[in-house]
UniProtKB/TrEMBL annotation:
Family: Belongs to the peptidase M20 family.
Protein residues bound to Zn(2+) 2: D106, E141, H397
Binding-site residues, Zn(2+) 1: H95, D106, H205
Name of the molecule in the record: N-carbamoyl-L-amino acid hydrolase
NCBIfam families assigned to the protein according to its UniProt record, in alphabetical order: hydantase, PRK09290.1-5, PRK09290.2-5
Signal peptide: none
One of the record's GO molecular function terms: hydrolase activity, acting on carbon-nitrogen (but not peptide) bonds, in linear amidines
Length: 426
């Protein structure tokens, strides 16, 4: 194996970056057609499409000079050895599953760009001071069974046995679906990775938001992944005839809900916390045109990069809901059903990424990720870093999701240098 000296790194030239970007885009198109529906991209965990995708990605890993394997939850791996044997790895990765009616780039771009970096090393017979591993996570989205990050949770030994009984919309359990594609539910524990075998986890991902697009930047460094809370809320009032009950006598929970939603928006617009909130579902009961509602059920999704600020904001928002309800003679109840803490990216890794992007781009925006990623799970055992690449207009989880070829060309050159610097410095 050829070692690397500190004065040299395996630079990707302009012609090579164009060639690699073209291949990435061609492969993205190929994978986008592996779908349970012909008219869009839908690729769910433990499906025929999942296994077919794994086999194709495994083939590309082998062509890049990697040893490959699939673990017992369906993650696909490739390993490219270091210049000396038995070195720990820098693990690069993202997910290969999609939401229904998905975009082409979410998750996939990070895996395929990582393969091209290894392909470049292999083509030039270069091995770095640490091994490079790539993982295509089997399930990040959680679309099929309602549990997110199933692939990466297996690596960190956070996979719960009770999940085997969870069912999809067709009443198929995870256990049954695993057996259908040849996975052994008794060997899930073997997907766990030893802490010492991996030095760091790096994830390249589309931003899925408009920040880089608005700032005309191809790339940015992720500072943190937002914490998220999801709360079921209920406003309970009193039904009445829509034509006979005077406005001033009504106990209308929909009016209270509306006042509260506007309060949330106004508070967050005034805030400097970068917290965002979404009312994603509202159900109005009894739901008749000529009946004053007696109950409103809704969901609150609220996210932010700092746990203490997030918790304080939630407390204030729920307090206001009770105040509004008391004023209007109705009842408010809430119950939190989902909670993740914000995760900070490793400072040293973040600085290496930022310095490298600054060098190649002339600037490096730093931003928190509003979306969840496999890096959340990985941070429980290893230092993490993330690089964002812009997507046009910030559109994601949609067939309109798009990444520019020129951004991939720029990113792959930068990514190679980032990986080299990481193998030298961590």
């Amino acid at each position: 194996m050829k070692d690397i000296v500190n004065m040299y790194y395996p630079k990707i030239n302009n012609n090579e970056s164009i060639k690699y970007a073209t291949r990435i885009l061609n492969r993205i198109e190929k994978l986008s057609k592996i779908s349970e529906n012909k008219n869009n991209t839908t690729r769910l965990y433990l499906s025929i499409e999942h296994i077919k995708t794994n086999k194709i990605v495994e083939k590309w890993m082998k062509l890049a000079g990697m040893q490959t394997w699939q673990d017992q939850v369906g993650n696909i791996y490739g390993r490219y050895e270091a210049c000396t044997k038995k070195q720990p790895a820098i693990l690069l990765g993202s997910h290969l599953d999609t939401v229904p009616n998905a975009g082409k780039y979410d998750g996939i771009l990070g895996v395929l760009t990582s393969i091209e970096v290894v392909n470049h090393l292999n083509k030039n017979k270069i091995h770095l001071k640490k091994a490079i591993e790539i993982v295509g996570f089997a399930d990040e989205e959680g679309t099929r069974f309602g549990i997110t990050l199933l692939g990466s949770k297996a690596l960190t030994n956070k996979w719960k046995k009770k999940w085997l009984n969870y069912k999809d919309k067709n009443k198929i359990t995870i256990a049954h679906a695993m057996k259908n594609i040849g996975l052994n539910t008794n060997k899930i524990c073997l997907a766990k990775r030893n802490t010492k075998d991996i030095k760091a986890y790096i994830e390249l991902h589309i931003e899925q938001g408009p920040y880089l697009y608005k700032n005309n930047s191809s790339m940015g460094v992720v500072s943190a992944i937002n914490g998220a809370k999801r709360i079921n809320c209920t406003f309970t009032g009193e039904s009445g005839h829509a034509g006979t009950v005077p406005i001033y006598m009504r106990k209308d929970p929909l009016i209270a809900t509306s006042e509260w939603i506007l309060f949330i928006e106004n508070e967050l617009l005034k805030s400097k916390t970068k917290i965002v909130a979404t009312i994603g579902k509202i159900n109005c009961y009894p739901g008749a045109t000529n009946v004053i509602p007696n109950k409103i059920k809704l969901t609150l999704d609220i996210r932010g990069p700092k746990n203490n600020e997030l918790n304080k904001t939630i407390s204030n928002i729920l307090k206001k809901a009770k105040e509004i309800s008391k004023k209007r003679n109705i009842i408010f109840n809430s119950k939190k059903y989902y909670s993740t803490k914000s995760i900070k990216c490793n400072k040293k890794i973040k600085n290496i990424i930022k310095k490298t992007i600054n060098k190649t781009q002339g600037n490096c925006p730093s931003l928190a990720s509003g979306a969840g990623h496999d890096a959340i799970s990985m941070a429980k055992k290893w230092p993490i870093g993330m690089i964002f690449i812009r997507c046009i207009k910030g559109i994601s989880h949609s067939p309109k999701e798009k990444v520019l070829k020129k951004d991939i060309i720029k990113t792959i050159k930068t990514y190679m240098e980032i990986i080299y610097n990481l193998t030298e410095k961590i």
